[in-house]
Write a structure and sequence with these properties.
Layout: E1 5-10, H1 14-29, E2 33-34, E3 43-48, H2 53-69, E4 77-82, H3 83-88, H4 91-95, E5 101-103, H5 111-119, E6 125-127, E7 147-154, H6 165-169, E8 173-174, H7 177-189, E9 194-199, H8 225-236, E10 241-245, H9 254-262, E11 269-271, H10 279-285, H11 291-304, E12 309-316, H12 323-336, E13 340-345, H13 363-386, E14 392-400, E15 408-412, E16 417-420, E17 431-439, E18 443-448
Helix pairs in contact: 7-8, 9-11, 12-13
Length: 455
């Protein structure tokens, strides 16, 4: 019997990246062999995203191409997993004729069994579900990496007007804290230097179900479940660097600010989506905060950690967004001074409240506003990065730069991408002191100045 090989193509967020990694480990334990070239795989899975229409279009297009490839490889198994499956369900088999199986976000552990059933002659297998009884928390990480993602919160209860995530990822459920600490401790023992905790609204960890043993106590007197988890990981895992995403202004409490200041493993960086600087738009979005609330959250964080790096998400062209609303977003960007911003043109998602409203900002105007914000961000980012020229940053080396194999890249604690010339002693996972000699809006360049590795 020929060796069964697999490849997973991933679209979407960090949680999808983590899901792909976990499913890959699951398939490997089941006897399948991973390959780096999709063309060599006789099992190909697309991990899909539904947050934006463009992401779904890409996944559907890819699946249709893969289905076409079965004309030359009739025994090839084609599957799809993730958020798009939960939204479209059986419709996927109508849109992709050669699709063999489709699995929703909380059913990934079923994938090996589905592949076996398809190899036995079954086809068009659908497995979906987003209730508590459908929870899957898969273990397993790629031991060759220097950093890792760890899921701590599944689903979302926020119900922002534009967001489909609660419908496709299900209600919030937090993992027990002890299991998270054990997983991170195991990653540290395997050589992982940096962990990012994942949750759709990660600061709500522990608010919908119990996560701590009744007699557990915080050495620092913290009371918030999420902050207590950060403290436990700092105290017990041996981890060098800890990050978390995605955040919400309501979670930027005084306790969190204290933790950011006092816990050595916590990186001085936060990804804090703004979405809009207009109170009118924020209210329609159902974000649960005003522009002043957002700025107040930033001020609390910067009072505790003055050098904290801040990145954000912004949606432009939301239904009803006026020219004045847009200018208010530009104003908040200037006040906050983000290190980087991820800017998206609004696209309606079926089934969300916003999808019922007129998409009344013309596409040409969306493109114009998008370009204006990109130019604003480049200017702000350049100013921030110029101030770092001449300084020395601790950088976690990740390996060869994507654009220049003769150089390496890594990230600072504040999440700055730093490109540098390696020496003969460099290895992925080293902490290096890099003196910055040049800056671009999203990238720093420098030289190694230490002669000994930090581990």
């Amino acid at each position: 019997m020929a060796e069964k090989t697999f490849f997973v193509r991933t679209y979407g967020c960090q949680m999808n990246v983590r899901d792909t990694e976990a499913v890959s480990m699951l398939l490997a334990r089941h006897g399948l062999v991973p390959v780096k070239d999709e063309a060599l795989a006789n099992v190909v899975i697309v991990n899909s995203c539904s947050v934006r229409g463009k992401a779904e279009d890409k996944a559907i297009g890819k699946l249709q191409m893969l289905a076409f490839s079965k004309r030359d490889q009739p025994s090839r198994i084609i599957g799809v997993m993730g958020c798009m499956v939960q939204r479209l369900q059986g419709e996927l088999f109508e849109r992709v004729g050669g699709l063999d199986f489709a699995v929703g976000p909380r059913r990934f552990s079923r994938i090996p069994a589905l592949i076996d059933r398809i190899a036995g002659g079954e086809h068009h297998l659908l497995d979906v579900g987003i209730g508590d009884e459908d929870l899957d928390v898969l273990s397993g990480h790629d031991e060759e990496d220097v950093s890792a993602f760890v899921n701590i919160l599944l689903g979302c209860d926020r119900r922002c007007a534009y967001c489909i995530v609660p419908d496709v990822r299900g209600p919030e459920w937090s993992r027990p804290a002890e299991g998270i600490v054990q997983e991170v401790s195991s990653l540290v023992r395997s050589g992982i230097k940096e962990v990012t905790l994942l949750g759709q609204s990660v600061m709500r960890y522990g608010l919908t179900n119990a996560v701590w043993a009744p007699d557990a106590a915080s050495p620092r007197g913290f009371t918030e479940p999420f902050v207590r988890l950060l403290e436990a990981l700092n105290n017990r895992s041996g981890l060098k660097r800890l990050r978390f995403t995605s955040s919400h202004p309501s979670g930027c409490t005084r306790e969190l600010a204290t933790a950011m200041r006092e816990l050595p493993c916590l990186c001085p960086h936060l990804h804090l989506p703004l979405q809009s600087g207009s109170d009118t738009v924020l209210q329609r979005m159902r974000r649960g905060y005003s522009a002043a609330d957002y700025i107040g959250a930033v001020e609390r964080l910067r009072a505790a950690v003055p050098a904290i790096g801040l990145t954000t998400d912004i949606i432009i062209g939301f239904p009803g967004e006026t020219a004045d609303d847009f200018e208010q977003t530009r104003r908040v960007m200037e006040i906050v001074g983000f290190d980087n911003s991820f800017i998206f043109k609004y696209s309606p998602r079926p089934g969300t409240p916003a999808a019922k409203w007129p998409d009344d900002v013309p596409e040409e105007e969306k493109r114009r506003r998008n370009q204006v914000l990109l130019e604003d961000q480049d200017r702000i980012g350049q100013q921030i990065n110029d101030a770092l020229v001449g300084s020395t940053l601790e950088v976690l080396a990740e390996g060869e730069s994507l654009r220049d194999a003769s150089r390496w890249s890594g990230r600072s604690g504040s999440n700055k991408i730093v490109v540098f010339a390696p020496d003969e002693h460099c290895a992925a996972g080293d902490f290096l002191s890099i003196k910055i000699d040049r800056a671009m809006p999203q990238t720093l360049y420098g030289q190694i100045v230490n002669t000994e590795k930090k581990v």
